[in-house]
């Protein structure tokens, strides 16, 4: 669940900056297919990759994590989800 939320928020930031997956992947020095899988919640990025993506998007890693946390908590409250 958190992977999906992270990917969706990351995708929203990328699209808001009008970047293609290719552009963001190049700027973050990662493979485009890996970025695609992260955005779809299939793969989990390392902390180093999270920082690289955030710097490429010109956002603070802590801000991105805060957004993910807020959305996760909102979903838990709305859907009464467990911590799994």
Automatic annotation (TrEMBL):
Q: Check the record and name the SMART domains matching this protein.
A: HTH_XRE
Q: Which Pfam families match?
A: HTH_3
Q: Name one GO cellular component term.
A: cytosol
Q: Which InterPro entries match?
A: Cro/C1-type_HTH (IPR001387), Lambda_DNA-bd_dom_sf (IPR010982), TransReg_Diox_bact_type (IPR050807)
The HTH cro/C1-type domain sits at: 10-64
Q: Does the keyword DNA-binding apply?
A: yes
Keyword Repeat set for record: no
Alphabetized UniProt keyword annotations = DNA-binding
Q: Which GO terms describe its molecular function?
A: DNA binding; DNA-binding transcription factor activity
CDD domains linked to this entry: HTH_XRE
- Protein name, please? XRE family transcriptional regulator
Organism in which the protein naturally occurs? Brevibacillus agri
């Amino acid at each position: 669940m958190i992977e999906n939320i992270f990917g969706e928020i990351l995708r929203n930031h990328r699209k808001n900056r009008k970047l293609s997956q290719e552009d963001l992947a190049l700027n973050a020095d990662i493979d485009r297919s890996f970025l695609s899988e992260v955005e779809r919640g299939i793969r989990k990025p390392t902390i180093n990759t999270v920082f690289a993506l955030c710097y490429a998007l010109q956002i603070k890693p802590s801000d991105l994590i805060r957004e993910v946390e807020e959305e996760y908590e909102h979903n838990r409250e709305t859907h009464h989800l467990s911590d799994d």
